[in-house]
Design a protein that fits this description.
The protein has one domain: TIM Barrel (Alpha-Beta Barrel), CATH 3.20.20.70. It has 10 helices and 9 strands. A 6-stranded parallel β-sheet has the order 5-4-3-2-1-9, sandwiched between helices.
Length: 216
């Protein structure tokens, strides 16, 4: 059951490489979770991050975990209890805005691959020293955007990133052009208005457009 930081990063890197964009989803109604996941997967975005920001999040993960072709993870993991609840709900990986020893210890102990967050070279180096080579760059735009991530990559080329926070179709391509970026996290592919309206066709179109980002 236990997972090493190296194996965790290998797995999260594989998941991030499934598509250029990882949807970052805030699900208010678990009844809409499965059709939402189906639309995103059909559009070419199989890796899904459900943030633990609502009371419906864990039930949404349970629903999405049943969607064929999807790889569902839990975002906004802050505490060991968050990690344990996410794993029990069926999450195949976790995502955190930062990293604490307690959270890293818990995820390793229960075998939940974690994509830990870092916003500075020091944070990235500390995680690398522990064995994590696949990180979340968060909050991306507020932390200097693509130029900052490019600068961090120069002395730390062995670290790969999934930038998240302020990513949109307008700037995603710039991030994806960087050699140290595997994918970008974005919430625009699952907008609240379309989810509330149940317009799964429109969400599938957004996903399909996102799945083509970064391709020449």
């Amino acid at each position: 059951m236990r997972i090493t930081p190296q194996d965790a990063s290998l797995r999260t890197c594989e998941i991030c490489a499934l598509a250029p964009v990882m949807p970052v989803l805030v699900v208010e109604d678990a009844a809409r979770a499965r059709p939402l996941a189906q639309a995103l997967v059909a559009g070419g975005l199989p890796a899904l991050e459900v943030t633990l920001r609502t009371g419906a999040a864990l039930d949404a993960i349970r629903e999405m975990a049943q969607v064929k072709g999807g790889v569902v993870g839990a975002g906004t993991l802050i505490t060991p209890k968050d990690a344990e609840a996410a794993k029990e709900a069926g999450a195949q990986f976790g995502v955190s805005p930062g990293a604490t020893d307690a959270l890293l210890d818990a995820c390793e102990a229960i075998g939940l691959p974690l994509l830990p967050g870092a916003a500075t070279a020091t944070e990235a180096m500390r995680l690398l020293a522990r064995g994590y080579g696949m990180l979340k760059f968060f909050p991306a735009e507020a932390s200097g955007g693509a130029p900052a991530l490019k600068a961090i990559g120069a002395p730390l080329p062995q670290i790969s990133f999934c930038p998240t926070g302020g990513i949109s179709p307008a700037n995603a391509g710039t991030y994806l052009s960087l050699p140290n970026v595997v994918c970008a996290g974005g919430s625009w592919v699952g907008p609240a208005d379309l989810v509330k309206a149940g317009d799964w066709g429109a969400i599938e179109v957004l996903a399909r457009d996102a799945s083509r980002l970064g391709k020449s």
